[in-house]
Every structure is written in C-alpha cells, then in structure tokens.
Automatic annotation (TrEMBL), chain A:
It comes from Colocasia esculenta. It catalyses: UDP-beta-L-arabinofuranose = UDP-beta-L-arabinopyranose. One of its GO terms (biological process) is plant-type cell wall organization or biogenesis. This is UDP-arabinopyranose mutase. The keyword DNA damage does not apply. The keyword Ubl conjugation does not apply. The record marks R157, R164 as: Required for activity. Belongs to the RGP family. Its main location: Golgi. It is found in: Golgi apparatus. One of its GO terms (molecular function) is UDP-arabinopyranose mutase activity.
From TrEMBL, chain B:
Belongs to the RGP family. Keywords: Cell wall biogenesis/degradation, Golgi apparatus. It comes from Colocasia esculenta. It is found in: Golgi apparatus. GO terms for cellular component: cytosol; Golgi apparatus; plasmodesma. Pfam families: RGP. GO terms for molecular function: UDP-arabinopyranose mutase activity. Coiled coil: none annotated. PANTHER family: UDP-ARABINOPYRANOSE MUTASE 5-RELATED, UDP-ARABINOSE MUTASE. GO terms for biological process: cell wall organization; UDP-L-arabinose metabolic process. Its main location: Golgi. This is UDP-arabinopyranose mutase 5.
C-alpha cells in the first residue's frame, strides 16, 4: 500500500464534506481519468484498489492524497479471509469500503469522465451525490414531481404531510451518458446504442421495488449501509459474472426498505467511455442472465424479521436465506453465502463500534 | 421444509410455479411423492420470440374530454387545434355555468350540459360540480381511450422550444408496455434511445399493458393549498425528459389535470366519490382525482396492469391561479388532514382474487372504505356509497351503449 502527499492547489469553491467522504476507485486500466476530475476531486481522500496483477505499477497523477491497495495488501490485511474479496470485475472496490474511515463513500470507475449538462456546463457529479445523500428520501409515496427537496420542486397535491419529512438517504445511484450500462445481449443488438438523454431528475425508488444498482457512479452513507455494500465473488470465472454490483444493490435495497432508509437514482450523470466487447461480455454474463430469473424472485420474497435491527444482522439473515433457498439450486450459492458471512466478520473487525480510530496502520 | 408446508400452501391457494420449484428443490421424498400423487404439474410455457405488450391506438379509438368551467373555450381550443382537431371531443359544461359555451368551428364535438348530467345521473347521489363534471364525459364516452386536459392548460414547449403534442405522448405511453415489477434506471425502456439496463430480468422485459398515463405541468405545478399559500410565486420550469412506470404497490397522487387512460379497462375507477365539504372550483381545493388515482393504482396493480408518470407536460396558465389559497386554507384543512388516513388505507388494500374486473375491484374497495374508514368521517361513508352507485351507473350506461 502506498500513500501520496497533497500538493497545494487553488480551491474551486468550498468542497462539501471533504473530511467525511472517501472516493473509492477500482484501478483496472490506468488512473489518467483523474486528471479530468481534478477540480472536483482534489480535496478528497482517494482509496485506490488495484485490480489484477499486483506487480503492475499503477501511476497516480500528482497532487492527490490517496491510499493504494493491491491484492497483496488485501491478503496481508485480511489473511485467509481475503478470499471473500474478488479481484475480478472491479469487485475489489469492496475492500476500499471496508478500510475507509469516513461517513460517506463515492465510487467511480476509471473509464468515467466529467459529463456536461444540456447548457454545456461541466457536471460536478460528486457535489450532486452529496446533495442527494444530505437531503431526505421519500420511499413511502411517490412524488410525481420527483425529488421534492430540489430547488424549484415540492411535494404535489395529495402528498400526505406526515410523509414530507422523508427518511435518511442511504444510497445515491448516478447514471451515465454516452455508453449506457447495458447487458451483453443488448450491446450485441445495439452496438451503437448511446444514451444521449439528459433526464433532469433525482427520485427515490419506492419501498418494495428492486432495481439494478450499477457500481460505476455510486455514492452511499457508509455509516448506514456500508456492511451491505459487498460486491461479492460474482466476477469473471465465477458462476455469475458481471453482477457483483447488482448483488450488492439487491441486498442494499432489501435492507434499506427494512430499516426505513431511502435509495435515490437519477442525477448525476457521468460520461462513460468504454471499449465494449459484447462477445466477451456475453461469455461472462450468460450465466448471470440465466440466474437473474431465480435471483430476482428470491430477493422479492426476502423478508427480514423484526429482530434484525442492524445492517449486519439483516445481511447475515439474507446469507442464511441464500444458503437455504438458492443453495439448493447450485452449490455456488453456498460459497456466496459463506463469503457474505466472512465479509460481515471482517467488516465488524475492521470497523468496531467505537469512536476511537482503529484498523490497520496505513503507510509503509 | 415439511410436508405440512406443502399442504398448507395448497390450501391457502398459494402454490405458484416458483414455489413449486422451491418445494421440489428440497429433494424431500415425501414432498415429491405428494406432488406426484396430486398430479401437480409445471406449466410449460412455449418459447416465443420476444414480443412485448405493445398495442396500436388509432385516432378513432380516442375521446378527448374537456370540462368547461367558464363559457369561452375559443382560445383554449385554438391553442390545441393542431393537436386535438383530428379527435372526437366531449365537452362537459360545469352544471353551475349558465352562459352558452363559445366553441370555435371545425371540431367534431359533443356537449353535455347540466340537464344531460341530470338525465344520466340525476337519480344517484353523486355530485358532478366543479372539475368533477369531467367524469360524466368519461362515462358517456364510447371510445376505448380517454385523454383529459384541464381547460386552463395550453400546449407546453420542450427544451428545444418545440410544441409538445401531449395527446401523441399520452397515446405513446398507453401504446407501449409498462414495467411495474422491476425499476429500470434508464426510465421508460421503450422510448427511442433507451432500453433495459444490465441486471433487468429478461422475463420481465415484455412488460404489461399500460392503462393510465399521468402527465405533468410546467409553470403552475399541481400543489395543494398550503404549498400554494407559502410559495405563491413558485413556477415549475424543470422539463424532465422522462416517462417512467410507477412500481407495483407504490402509491402515488394522480392529478386529473393532464391524464389519459384505457377507459375500457379502468373507466370504473374514475369517479367523483371523494368530495370535501368546503370544496370549491380550484384544483387545490379538491382531492377527488387523488382518491380516484389511488383506486386506479390499487386496481391496476391487482389486475397486473401498469401506470406511467412523467411526459407529457402541459403549460398550466396563470388563470389556474385565480382564487385565494389562504382563503381555501381558512375554509379548512380537511382534505390535507384526510389524506393522512386515505394513503395508509390504500396502501393496505388487498383485493380478493375473485375480483377480475375494475367494477368488481371498485365494489370491493367501496366495502373496505365503508368498514374501515366510514366510522371516522362522513366523507368516507359518502365516498363508499358514491363508488357503489358509480359502478351501477357505469354498468347501466355501458350496457345501453353496447
């Protein structure tokens, strides 16, 4: 693991939550994309988790304060339990969530760049995520004018006043312009499909409704929902490839619904540039597409008992149901359920419920 | 997993394909032989090429319903002419309006006045005053689809300055499937330039029929009296370029200002049942459309249909702001207070499997309203009674038309 030093730079306005938010980046290709984000990210601490071959050197652009972990660091810190952290398909970012000491996490892929809104202005995605997380959610009744807390909006006629205070927002799910997050079959059919539609909305996904959570442009309240953000061993080579973020999303939504927290989706947009290989993706995904038909009904039926009063307890309960119901369908799910339990053990160990700072020592 | 559970599930009528698979997956010999002895079989679904639930809507299947709260409809109809002139139009004159309506030439239309309303529904206790006279229009329409826009609304312009054809957009919303069982983060996947995202189950991509399209409003948004009073100058300038399906079991406030629906399927769910004692002619003084929308959503969810919200926008003009929000407030917070009971009630409604039409569903909801809410406020018992009368009236009028 390596740490960098911050270089003096001009401040483009007052950054929000700079001491309360970590930016977690799974480094798969290179980190050159950080140059475009510099004005927005430079005051935040980065946690970079290097995917793939640990002997490959990853260059971090000058002027960012960061920690960098590779597979060797993960093994050193977690020991035999390191197996629960997948180093395929950017699921390694979960390790970043694990070791962060901040209240909020923003995660972004290294093929994502700053987008522009319809007026041509560059979008500060991080600022929008922060706005989303700091304002309430409204999962119990759908507001037809979308996020009522945005300037220029409000609750519409008929919206019960008792629900207008909203609930804490646990997750802010952003979207993508240019290359949309389609699955492999759709990419094959629509190789030139681009998302050019800027939808100027943030909205709360209603309670009881599941959604496909994409990890490319995502922020969450780590103190609330961190333990559920396990992008598990669902990567390349596993039974279900390219669905690590989806798995975390379904667990997260079920738990948020149970705990009475909100999940928002919509703004901000980032600009996604990615060389798509739909044939390669199809090979990785075909199992996932098949298993999705079992997984969605499974998550739609998950019920969490009243005794599950913490996210960890909810997560362990889900892992039991995974083992009981999905384990019968394929032994892979037993392995996944065990990884979920290991994750919680590791989470609790690295994040004991005290105010005193603890965890592995940073720096070499 | 015990044999007992299988039997219990059977008796409760809860055995579905999914649950059957789970039982069988246990490998429990007793369960497997029970299933075999009862001759319970998988339903084999033929593998078909992906065909979604799109329908084609022709102009002659649509009625545009307009309520006339003031006599001169000239400028309203001229502004909408390019958009509505090819459709049949039902104009319902507010019963209290005495002057003759002024309607420009060149529209295929029918007018219903107070005496028509009296003839059709005078024998019921249902009141059709104010905006509620639109329901007569829904009742007498003989078309499959109804589109209704308040007469103080004009065509809006989108972000490029182009006039929004609200009727065409509503038709597009009703024509393409809805996707209520799983949320698509790129909103309506059937719009050009959009699709289902990664992680969206393929079995849910055919969607279900969309039976209700709820549009929005630029300029004056549909706020209630307290919000209007606090923010009298707020205007909605945000054009959100999205249509989305409101997920199953999520409740929402449906505004009657800009709405379209499949009348054949959902007609009985739109009625003036929920009337506030001090209700006036301003939208912010009424909740009957909110009540209908909650019924419609519950019924739609139960029948397996979808509801969309978002585009099209209409431009709600300043004339919609006539009247005094503070005055309305003083007359009572009744509607606002009552919503506190109304929403939890609708969230808890579970319709029996035997209710397979909208009429049957509305009838069941009326019974529940009477039992669970009737005691707390007379508004509810009147609403329940109106719902039952409406279902009977609907059946009568529709059988006469058939």
């Amino acid at each position: 693991m390596a740490t960098g030093r911050v270089a003096p730079a001009s401040v483009p306005g007052t950054p929000l939550l700079k001491d309360e938010l970590d930016i977690v980046i799974p480094a798969i290709r290179s980190l050159d994309f950080l140059e475009t984000w510099r004005p927005f990210f430079q005051h935040y601490h980065l946690i970079i988790v290097q995917d793939g071959d640990p002997s490959r050197a990853i260059r971090v652009p000058e002027g960012f304060e960061y920690e960098l972990y590779n597979r060797n660091d993960v093994k050193r810190i977690l020991g035999p339990r390191a197996a629960c952290i997948s180093f395929k398909d950017s699921a390694c970012r979960s390790f970043g969530y694990l070791v962060s000491k901040k209240k909020y996490v923003f995660t972004i892929d290294d093929d994502c760049f700053v987008a522009k809104d319809p007026s041509g202005k560059e979008i500060n995605a991080l600022e929008q995520h922060i706005k989303n997380l700091l304002s309430s959610s409204t999962p119990f009744f759908f507001n037809t004018l979308y996020d009522p807390y945005r300037e220029g909006a409000d609750f519409v006629r008929g919206y019960p006043f008792s629900l207008r205070e909203g609930v804490p927002t646990a997750v802010s799910h952003g979207l993508w312009l240019n290359i949309p997050d389609y699955d492999a079959p759709t990419q094959l059919v629509k190789p030139l499909g681009r998302n050019n539609r800027y939808v100027d909305a943030v909205l709360t996904i209603p309670k009881g409704s599941l959604f496909p959570m994409c990890g490319i442009n995502l922020a969450f309240n780590r103190e609330l929902i961190g333990p559920a953000m396990f992008f598990g061993p669902l990567g390349d080579g596993e039974l279900i490839g390219r669905y690590d973020d989806m798995w975390a999303g379904w667990c997260t939504k079920v738990i948020c619904d149970h705990m009475g927290w909100g999940v928002k989706t919509g703004l901000p947009y980032i600009w996604r540039n990615k060389a798509i290989n739909p044939f390669l993706n199809l090979k990785k995904e075909c199992n996932g597409v098949y298993w999705l038909e079992e997984l969605i009904p499974f998550f739609q039926c998950v019920t969490l008992p009243k005794e599950c009063t913490t996210v960890q307890k909810c997560y362990i309960e889900i892992s039991k149901q995974v083992k009981a119901k999905l384990g019968k369908l394929d032994p892979y799910f037993n392995k996944l359920a065990e990884a979920m339990v290991t994750w919680i053990e590791v989470w609790d160990e690295l994040n004991p419920p005290t105010n005193a700072p603890s965890g592995p020592v940073k720096g070499k | 997993m015990h044999l007992f559970n299988v039997q219990k599930t059977l008796h409760a009528g809860k055995l579905t394909e999914k649950i059957l698979k789970l039982f069988m997956a246990t490998g429990n010999e007793n369960i497997l032989s029970l299933i075999q002895s009862l001759n319970i079989q998988h339903i084999l679904l033929p593998v078909l090429p992906t065909k979604n639930m799109s329908v084609e809507i022709k102009d002659n299947e649509v009625d545009i319903v307009i309520t006339a709260l003031q006599p001169d409809l000239t400028s309203f109809m001229e502004d909408w002419r390019p958009i509505i002139s090819q459709f049949h139009i039902i104009i319902v004159k507010e019963p209290g309006l005495e002057e003759d309506l002024q309607i420009p030439q060149g529209f295929d239309h029918q007018i219903y006045t107070g005496s028509d309303i009296q003839r059709i529904a005078g024998h019921t206790s249902i009141t059709f005053s104010g905006h509620s006279c639109c329901y007569i229009g829904y009742l007498v329409s003989q078309k499959k689809y109804v589109i209704s826009i308040d007469s103080d609304c004009l065509p809006a312009r989108d972000k490029n300055g182009c006039v929004v054809d609200a009727v065409a957009q509503h038709i597009a919303n009703l024509q393409t499937p809805a996707t209520p069982f799983f949320f698509n983060t790129l909103y309506d996947p059937y719009r050009t330039g959009a699709d289902f995202v990664r992680g969206y189950p393929f079995s849910l991509r055919t969607g279900v029929q969309c039976v209700l399209s709820c549009g929005l409003w630029l300029n004056l948004a549909d706020y209630d009296a307290p919000t209007q009073a606090v923010k009298p100058n707020e205007r909605n300038h945000r054009y959100v370029d999205a249509v989305l399906t409101v997920p199953a079991r999520a409740m929402m406030p449906v505004s009657g200002i800009n709405i379209a629906f499949d009348r054949e399927i959902m007609g009985p769910t739109f009625f003036p049942g929920f009337r506030l004692p001090e209700e006036g002619k301003q939208r912010w003084e009424s909740m009957e459309d909110i009540w209908c929308g909650l019924c419609a959503k519950v019924v739609g969810d139960h029948l397996g249909h979808g509801v969309k919200s978002g585009l099209p926008y209409v431009w709600r003009s300043a004339s919609a702001n006539r009247g005094d929000a503070f005055g309305s407030l003083k007359r009572g917070w009744e509607g606002v207070k009552l919503m506190e009971e109304v929403v939890p009630f609708f969230q808890s409604v579970r319709l029996p499997r035997t209710a397979v039409t909208a009429e049957e569903c509305v009838f069941e909801i009326a019974k529940m309203v009477s039992e669970r809410l009737g005691q707390s406020n007379a508004v509810f018992s009147k609403a329940a009674a109106a719902m039952i009368e409406w279902v009977k009236l609907w059946k009568t009028v529709n059988s006469q038309q058939a």
